[in-house]
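User: Please run a holo structure prediction.
Assistant: Happy to. Please share the sequence and the ligand.
User: Here you go; the ligand is adenosine-5'-diphosphate.
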Amino acid sequence: MSAQIEVVVGDITELEVDAIVNAANKQLKGGGGVDGAIHRAAGPGLLEDCRRLNGCETGDVKVTGGHDLPASWVIHAVGPVWGGDKEEKDRLLAACYTTALRKAEGLGCASIAFPAISTGVYGFPGDRAARVAVKALRATLPDCGSIEKVVLCCFSEESATHHRVALEQ
Ligand code: ADP
């Protein structure tokens, strides 16, 4: 039995899950949007950890502890900036979900929450990003035996609708 994927509307920093995913930038130096919210809620120790990681490539992830967050781990994923070669951007976005999930499995996590990576400042269309996310998660979950629950943590009803529609397909 594959894990359950659920959609919630809320602030990812408040979720009681083993790992939350951050929509980070390549420098891993914090920023706006969900990245800023995660750094504020985790406290300054998170930035200290991030500084030691030498940045992160687009489509890849790096892991830190959760510091003051309820989550034990933060998996920092760098999503693509929308524009140019759309199929390539889909591939890079899918890689964020796949790699983060595999990393969580490696950490022994039972639960993980994702924000809608790249759909804020990075400009990815919300409906397309949701389809990419759901497809990548469904393809990877069967290999990730420790994962019992995946939360798609949306920050608006519109984003939640995109994810619910993607899950129905
Ligand atoms: P990116 O640069 O990858 O586009 P953003 O942080 O700008 O990252 O946006 C990614 C998504 O995260 C957007 O859908 C945004 O609305 C959402 N978001 C912003 N703050 C939070 C939060 N505290 N919890 C969950 N999602 C959030």
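The mean pLDDT is 97.
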